[in-house]
Amino acid sequence: MSSPSISEALLRLMHAYKSRMRRALQDEQLGVPITHIRALKGICRHPDCTAQSVAQWMQRDKAQITRVLNDLLGEGLIEKRDNPADRRSQLLLPTPKGEALMGQLQNIERQTAAAMTKNLDREEVAQFVRLAAAMAKNLGGDPESPQR
């Protein structure tokens, strides 16, 4: 039997990672969709975040992002403030509740990463991170994007 192709290996890894994350989110009863988590993560990481910037790095249309942001606002996870650099837009910031949720999410991500890398040494993990970043860059992806 031949070894799996890069595509097969990546698909298996992504499926396993997403499944583990979804189970952990359900176990913690967080009830937040993945798209909302990605948006909140980016908002927490970028202090000058706007709805337009979220739509750009998530590569989603503005209407879909508006719905996600309205959900996050309604849940009290983010707030809007006037943008002093551009009066036509508003800055998005996490609320204390949003920051607390991010803390929970980071714990889940750390636990999932620990499980995923439990039989690997630091150099193997560092090599994987370098290779994945290079591959993403080769495909036109931004390895520093907040969604990653």
From TrEMBL:
Sorted UniProt keywords: DNA-binding, Transcription, Transcription regulation
TM helices/strands, residue ranges: none
GO aspect biological process, one term: response to stress
Keyword Transcription regulation: yes
Key word DNA-binding present: yes
GO MF, one example: DNA-binding transcription factor activity
Segments forming domain HTH marR-type: 3-137
UniProt-listed InterPro entries: HTH_MarR-typ, MarR/SlyA-like, Tscrpt_reg_MarR-type_CS, WH-like_DNA-bd_sf, WH_DNA-bd_sf
Protein name (Swiss-Prot/TrEMBL): MarR family transcriptional regulator
